[in-house]
Amino acid sequence: MLSNPLLEARNLSFSINQNKLFHGLSFELLYGEALHIKGGNGSGKTTLLKILLGITSPRKGHIKWVDNTNTVYLGHKNVLKDYLSVEDNLYLHGINSAKTSTKSILKELNLLNKIDVLVGNLSYGQKKKLALVRVLLNQSEVIVLDEPCVGLDDKTRAYIVDFLNAELSKNKSVIYTSHIPIEINSKKINIDKE
Amino acid sequence: MTDLLKIESFKLRKKLRAWLGPILIFLLIMISFPLTVELASDELKNVFYSILWLSSLLTVMVSLDSIFLEDFDDGTLEHYLILNNSLFSMILIKIFIYWLLIGIPISILGTFFSISTSGDFSSFYIAFPSMLISSYIFINLFALGNSLSLNKGSALGALITMPLLFPVLILLGKIVLNANFGFEISNLLLLMLGVLLIIIVIIPFIISFVVKTHLE
Amino acid sequence: MLKKLYHQFASPKTYVVLVDKIYPIIFYTSLITYVFALIWGLAFAPSDYMQGNSYRIIYMHVPASFLSESLYIAMAIAAAIFLIWKVKLAAYIIKAIAPIGALVAFLALVSGSIWGIPTWGTWWQWDARVTSTLILFIMYLGLISLHSSFTNYEKADKFISVLVLIGSVNIPIIKKSVDWWNTLHQPASITLTDKPSIDPSMLYPLFLSMLGFSGLIICLVILSSKVQIFNREGNKTWVKYHV
User: Fold this and answer.
1) What are the residue boundaries of the structural domains of chain A, listed by start?
2) CB C43: neighbour CB atoms within 10 A?
């Protein structure tokens, strides 16, 4: 079972209006493997992630996941409500902030004392960290991250890298894009046009 | 399903301006009409229902202008689609919550206004059921229009929704006409209820297709 | 086999080649027909015993009213084809029809209100059919605004198709319900089911004027759809070759 690829992508192509983004992209992802999608600005990294997540369909080609794969995704949008407190936002994601596991993560990210603060009053980096809490607590087999390290301080970045490495060793898979180097052992595909 | 109900109503309740605001706007419009036309109270009775329908329409228009926009901008819709593979139930419930927190209160307020204007309690039977049903229809249709225009401004949403509302307005006009002549209105109310029952399922389905296209 | 046939007919390239061939035929026959019908209708047909000569505007008003609705039906069919079979050509055609539909609806409204002055004594009445044509006109403009709001044309195509289909369900309902209020408009002169309520001496030129006018509008749609195709597929080699 574990030898089968978790994800197979064959011959993916995408274009917007008449502009081709990428063409004939094929790759696969195994259990416990990390995939780093590289490419310049506007090369279609986010679009490729959306195709892998099933939100967008490719113009050509197809993807195949192993059945019933759970995925957690964190993109450019944080999925946070500005007018709600940190606690209420976690509640919307089904996370109980009173639990010790949650508390320890919040403490690690320096957010525990902000629990009653409205998210609209947090800084960019703090919002990003709060958004990551959802990923850190998730039990999904696949973690998909779009530029996870933008706006994070060194300490948090190191924390995220450690977390991802730990998940990989638990045979979970990670797909990510990042311009900031992340020290995890990953397969790379470059979608820049030749 | 109950989780969704809880979450969606939590989101709307916590955002005071999004649900209390429209109700107050409804009040303001209803109050401002008698101030802008010089009418004897008899004449006011004649145009009262027209004012009532239009105020509820405008209230719904104002309250729904960002029904999906916030969830689109902060990534909630995308997140939900990845988790559940479908947006249908979320949209169905979102629309229901808007009716619960805005549609029903303005129906009650509108009924009070109609009783006090006509000085006759029997207008309850005209105003209350027709406002209850029509506000739900308005909310569905404005949700549809605003899902199409989504992040392109509420004026566009209103422009494409308003023509769809004309039959409902005419039906409402007919109800008042029949009531004034002392005819039966229950058949017209049932017709409107029938329309509601059809669109209550179809519209969220269309909206989820539209929103999915936006997320692509 | 069927798939190949479908691909051929659904391809913008085949469409352009085909349309280029038939365009002159349609254009000249309908131009001649319309001019002929106008001469017949304006100069030779008898005047109406109640409305005098003012009724003669029907040779423009009736075709325009007829087309304002049939163009919408055409869009609805194209929208269904686009959403079900994902034929891009159908989306281009919707986009091509919308402004022409708006134009035709506008013509119907203007000619109607000019006609209204001598016959109804007013240029505007909240009459059922006038109101529903006005709503139709606004709906056309709504479609155009919706499509032009999006930079991603593939998405815009889907949105406009959804709106066209919803509108196509709604327009008959609007017409019926507006009819509910007392109507001032004379009942339609020609329907498919009943015997025409108009004298043959007026009917024949009217019929010809409808044919001619429709043909001319179809020519306009063809030109406009070619503009759409060249805009949207401009980087394909066949377009460069063709232009």
Assistant:
1) 7-70+139-190
2) 9
The set of long-range contacts for C190-197, using a CB threshold of 8 Å and a minimum separation of 24, is C190/C62
What is the DSSP code (8-state) at residue A18?
T
Answer for the pair B164, B145: CB distance below 8 angstroms, yes or no: yes
Nearest to C64 by CA among C174, C202, C216, C195: C216
Q: Is A7-70+139-190 assigned to CATH 3.90.550.10?
A: no
- Give the full edge-to-edge strand order of the sheet including A60-65: A19-29, A7-16, A60-65
Which of B213, B214, B215, B216 to mutate against chain C (most C CBs within 10 Å)? Answer: B213
Contact C170, C132 (CB under 8 A): no
Question: Could you give the dihedral angle defined by the CA atoms of residues B112, B114, B118 and B123, in that order, rounded to the nearest 10 degrees?
Answer: -100
Residue B26: Cβ within 10 Å count: 26
E strand or H helix that includes residue A175: strand A173-177
Asked if C124 and C116 count as a contact pair (C-beta separation under 8 A), the reply is yes
Chain C residue set in contact with B, beta carbons under 8 Å: 135, 138-139, 141-143, 145-146, 149-150, 155, 158-159, 162-163, 166-167, 170, 173-174, 176-178, 180-181
Q: Is A68 exposed, middle or buried (0-12, 13-18, 19+ CB in 10 A)?
A: exposed
Q: State how far residue A130 is from chain B, nearest Cα, in angstroms.
A: 13
Q: How far is A175 from chain B, CA to nearest CA, in Å? A: 15
Contacts of B79 in chain A (CB under 8 A): 73, 79
Q: Could you tell me if C209 and C89 are in contact, meaning their C-beta atoms sit under 8 angstroms apart?
A: no
In the 8-state DSSP scheme, what is residue C204?
A: H
pLDDT per residue as tens, chain A (194 positions) = 456 788 999 989 998 887 888 888 999 999 999 999 998 888 889 999 999 999 999 989 999 998 888 899 999 999 999 999 999 999 999 899 889 999 999 998 999 999 999 999 999 999 999 999 998 888 888 999 999 988 888 988 999 999 999 999 999 999 999 988 888 888 888 888 65
